[in-house]
Amino acid sequence: MSATSTTTLSSKGQVVIPEEIRERLGLKPGTQFVVVADRDAVVLKVLNAPKLDDFAELLAHARKSARESGMRRSDVTAAIKKVRRER
């Protein structure tokens, strides 16, 4: 069941999430959110950092795809140098 409360936007653009909702969702200071605006609605979605194991799996997949496409480490190094020169 979703809780309903009201809150007010401060002059600094800050919004307080009511205590009951913070406790129910386990929100702590420093929690990061994605903020989405759609017409007259603002949605906050908690950002959960990926687990290290998930990142390792993603990295392994990226490396495999790069190998299969014929990409070499020197290609990546050259691309980085090119972008840095163009700045």
Short description:
Helix content is 44%, strand content 14%.
Give the topology:
Blueprint: H1 19-25, E1 33-38, E2 41-46, H2 52-68, H3 73-86
Antiparallel strand pairs: 1-2
Number of helices: 3
Strand % is 5-15%
Query: Structurally, how many domains make up the residues?
Result: 2
- Radius of gyration (CA) equals 21 Å
The CATH topology of the largest domain comes to Pemi-like Protein 1, Chain: D
Within the largest sheet, what's the order of strands?
A: 1-2
List key phrases describing it.
87 residues; 14% strand; 3 helices; Pemi-like Protein 1, Chain: D; elongated
Describe the structure.
The chain is of the alpha+beta class and 87 residues long. It folds into two domains: 48 residues, Pemi-like Protein 1, Chain: D (Ribbon), CATH 2.10.260; 35 residues, no CATH class. Helices cover 44% and strands 14% of the residues. A hairpin with a 2-residue loop joins β1 and β2.
